[in-house]
Specification:
Two copies of one chain form a homodimer.
Chain A lengths: L1 E6 L2 E3 L7 H5 L2 E8 L7 H15 L6 H11 L6 E8 L16 E7 L10 E5 L19 H7 L9 E5 L5 E4 L3 E6 L2 E5 L9 H10 L2 E3 L3 H5 L3 E6 L3 E8 L2 E2 L4 H13 L10
Parallel strand pairs in A: 6-7, 6-13, 10-11
Antiparallel strand pairs in A: 1-2, 1-5, 3-4, 4-5, 7-8, 9-10, 9-12, 12-13, 13-14
């Protein structure tokens, strides 16, 4: 892992002790797949970051600055993961946001995560629920204790992800991925207007499949013909098992993965295909 | 502001770039009034911290270590505020908590906040709601975007605090204080089993008043004979106005403030009395 930290446009050696990111999780992040030094979905990541910053009234570094640091961290034209965290500047005690302080932010490079099991992921249901909070829904913000608690529910390494429901009982997502389910020829995915993250790969899949955005009951997952998870680092991940329920490999999932690899060659070089 | 940062028992010069506190708000905090170098409610703060750490499965520094750093920061036997943030160690990308990593933590010293207006606080209703999340309710955790958004709703300096409701419409607390209301001789305070923080001053007031813990409708605040806010730094704060509603000074509030000053002389030296 290598990384660079900044206040506004100024490089800093270390995060300030009074960073609001550290105190309140007062920030946003983006986790991005990098292929040969390039982020194939940079435009989508940047658009989501800007939309989130507008909702939280968070100052952002300029896109040019971020792109320059990205190029520096990946100057070997290598593959990997870039993680950007942008937090509100200003420090100090108290919740009142400093609206004009330059942001405290960090961009870091990481290796690809472990390759998923061939044949598809093994999932479980998480007990930890996602609170319904429309003011934060969709954002990739830094208040992630629910995901930490959910991911801490199991340490069986054969289980790769867990599905999360809202406190109202609707299925929302996995701890670090969005969810699509197929019934016949009809794809659907949970709405993310009450909780959950508006994933960049989710957006791509919506555009490709015309999936319906629905309030999804657990039974809609368990009775599906096929289930997939997706995120911006790992692309499309077929699901092989959810608890006792086994899903046979499905040609519609394989076809989408091929389409993604064709559209964005970075995803063809990944762990899955 | 002066502060000290640590990983486990080891002093560090700066927070690590991959701190989970920064990435996920994966931690707890305590904000403590210090009087002549001593935290009058240290036992209560420590108990809450330990209860929160058990729920989040977070490692803590030992109480002896924290007490040593407190003594160092307040070696002038001065007054002020001590803020302790304890976050999960381990760093790295991904939500899976490292259960055995030593915590990344920080203790800092701050001046008292600005004294409240003589005659009582002026409050408003916040539009930002608190999500219902029993898994985190009561904890003083570092996922505080809701409070940041709520406190960002106004910048009129004559308004000192805002009352927050849950997404279900119940009154819960102010952005940085608990709430008690008086009807006749009966005190009540919102339950904090669905959202909100189990404040140390709230606990003291519960023990003193026998207040009922209730699901509280906004009308119960607006029709009260007296309203007070409380927290561990500022003690008991009478409320003079909530929007258009004016509350006359009430002897029951003054009596509680005197009782607190008697029980904990640190609160007699404060901005209020």
């Amino acid at each position: 892992m290598s990384g660079r930290s900044f206040i506004g446009e100024t490089r800093i050696e270390a995060l300030p002790g009074d960073a609001r990111g550290f105190a309140y999780g007062d920030g946003l992040f983006e986790t991005m797949r990098v292929h040969q030094g390039v982020v194939p979905w940079w435009a989508a990541h940047r658009a989501r970051l800007e939309a989130g910053a507008a909702r939280l009234r968070l100052s952002l570094p300029t896109a040019t600055t971020i792109e320059g640091v990205l190029a520096e961290l990946f100057d070997d034209q290598g593959d990997g993961v870039a993680k950007l965290i942008v937090t509100r500047g200003g420090g100090g005690r108290g919740y009142a946001p400093a609206l004009d302080a330059p942001p405290v932010w960090r961009l870091s490079r990481h290796p690809f995560p472990q390759a998923p099991r061939a044949g598809g992921l093994v999932l479980r249901w998480c007990e930890t629920r996602l609170a319904v909070q429309p003011a934060l829904a969709g954002l990739k913000h830094c208040n992630r204790l629910e995901q930490v608690l959910a991911r801490g529910e199991w340490n069986d390494p054969t289980i790769e992800e867990g599905l999360m429901r809202s406190t109202d009982g609707d299925v929302v997502c996995a701890t670090a991925a969005n969810l699509f389910v197929l019934h016949g020829t009809r794809w659907s995915t949970p709405r993310i207007d009450r909780c959950g993250v508006a994933g960049t790969c989710r957006a791509w899949l919506l555009s490709q499949t015309g999936a319906a955005e629905v309030r999804m009951a657990p039974a809609e997952v368990e009775t599906a013909d096929a289930v997939l998870l997706c995120n911006a680092v790992r692309g499309i991940l077929p699901v092989a098992r959810l608890g006792e329920r086994v899903f046979a490999p499905h040609p519609a999932v394989a076809e989408l993965a091929q389409r993604l690899a064709h559209a964005h060659p970075g995803f063809a070089a990944g762990p899955l295909l």
